[in-house]
Amino acid sequence: MPVTIDYSKLRIIPDPDTREWWDATRQHKYLVRRCNRCGHKWFPPNIPACSKCMSMEIGWFETAGKGVIHSYVVVVQPIVGAFVGAVPYVVAVIELDDCKEEDGSVTRVAGVLTNDETEVAIGLPCEVLFEATNDPKIVMPRWRVSGSAENTWKFSE
Ligand SMILES: [Zn+2]
């Protein structure tokens, strides 16, 4: 069953560190931070310096919005009103396909999946999609399973 978030109960206010990120989601683009000096990428965008070279000369990298589920949790107790009707829902940590670096570094992002827990497993490919909210200035990225894979793993029931 699709997981539905009640956006009327969320109020998201972009700040100077995240404004450009929210501007991008409105255009259906998924960005991560990129260091303009060494190329390292990271998420979330509100960390204002590169953890590898300490440069504060930072920019953005537009990802293709595709990755693999690195891990996930099933939320059964909502702490935000917008999610009361969504439980149980899955929050996944997603390793982005196009953010792998030569030294083995990866960029992982978190997201609420549209799939319920029966459809989710570690190792499955997924992709971003963008949902309109009640606020026309805020478009929310969500993630969905986009295919199958061998050697997946699920939490046992
Ligand atoms: Zn750097």
Summed over residues and divided by their number, the pLDDT gives a mean of: 95
**Which value, in Å, is the CA radius of gyration?**
16 Å
Write down the overall geometry. Answer: globular
Portion of residues within helices: under 10%
Order of helices and strands: HEEEEEEEE
Count of domain modules: 1
Counting helices, strands and paired strands, the structural category is: mainly beta
Description:
- The model has no long low-confidence stretch (mean pLDDT 95).
- The protein is mainly beta and 157 residues long.
- The strands form two sheets. A five-stranded antiparallel beta sheet has the order 6-5-4-7-8. Strands 2-1-3 form a three-stranded antiparallel beta sheet, with helices on one face.
- The chain starts with 18 loop residues before the first helix and ends in a 12-residue tail after the last strand.
- The longest helix has 8 residues, at 19-26.
- It has one domain.
- Helix content is 5%, strand content 33%.
- The radius of gyration is 16 Å and the shape is globular.
- The protein contains one helix and eight strands.
- Zinc ion binds next to loops.
